Amino acid sequence: MAHSSHSEADIALRVKAIESLLIEKGIVDPATLDTIIDAYESRIGPHNGARIVAKAWVDTEYKQRLLVDGTSAIAELGLTGFSSEHMVVVENTPQVHNLIVCTLCSCYPWGILGLPPTWYKSFAYRSRAVIEPRQVLKEFGLEIADDVEIRVWDSNADLRYLVLPERPEGTEGMSEESLAGLVTRNAMVGTAKVQPPESPSPLAA
Ligand code: FE
Predict the structure, then answer these.
(1) Catalytic amino acids?
(2) What pLDDT is attached to residue 53?
(3) Are residues 142 and 158 located together in one domain of the fold?
(4) 10-residue block means of pLDDT along the chain (205 residues)?
(5) Does a structural domain hold residue 83?
(6) Residue 185 and residue 120 in contact, taking contact as beta carbons nearer than 8 Å
(7) What is the pLDDT of residue 3?
(8) How crowded is residue 42: how many other Cβ atoms within 10 Å of its Cβ?
(9) How far is the CA of 172 from the centre of ligand 1 (A)?
């Protein structure tokens, strides 16, 4: 309702007003602001996480380093900072499906996944992901078989998680770059699986 929530234009206007004031008072440097905005618009985002996953799929030794010490292995790709300082990477297998949540607030590895989606920050997801993960995943369109264990990882300010999804079948000949193109943000949070290329539907065998 208009009286109880701000429209996007209204929010944009407020942000602009605050920005102008901060610059005018000499509190922030416009060049610094541009750098930060550029970072969020183009440098950080799920394409970084996808690079990590694709490399782990094609390079077994890299994958081992990634699972043992996520922070260092991710830094090898030049990806540091923006809340990705202490990273733990958890691997999906035919026996285990991993799901990431922050029950307390919305801790998330911004540097490698970008800004968190609205559902990740919602109270419903934060509370239900722990209590009934199988049902929550079903609502994301992801049916996890009863004999597959679901592990839920609770992020916090010091420790963030990244799911290493399973490499889909039919991708044997693909380049690392093309593989990265298949990896979605939700697959790295655990609310989706990576689909094979040109998969007609998530239910395809
Ligand atoms: Fe949090």
Answers:
(1) 102, 105-107
(2) 98
(3) yes
(4) 61 85 85 78 86 98 97 90 80 98 91 91 96 97 97 92 96 95 97 86 53
(5) yes
(6) no
(7) 47
(8) 9
(9) 37
Assigned token pair, 95: 């026996």
DSSP secondary structure letter of residue 104:
S
**What tokens does 42 get?**
């183009």
Residue 84: per-residue pLDDT: 61
Q: At what angle do helices 46-58 and 60-68 cross, to 10 degrees?
A: 120
Confidence at residue 66, expressed as pLDDT on a 0 to 100 scale:
97
Residue 204 lies in a domain: no
- Integer CA distances (angstroms), 68 to 71, 74, 87, 97, 201, in order: 9, 11, 10, 18, 34
CA 159 to centroid of ligand 1, rounded, Å: 10
Check residue 1 and give its pLDDT.
42
Query: In this structure, what is the dihedral angle of CA atoms 114, 158, 187, 71, given to the nearest 10 degrees?
Result: 90
Residues with CB under 5 A from ligand 1 (ion): 102, 104-107
Q: pLDDT value at position 162?
A: 96
Residues 19 and 111 in one domain: no
- The answer to whether the CB of 76 falls within 8 A of the CB of 56 is no
Find the domain containing 109 and state its range: 46-189
**What's the CA gap between 112 and 75, in Å, rounded?**
11
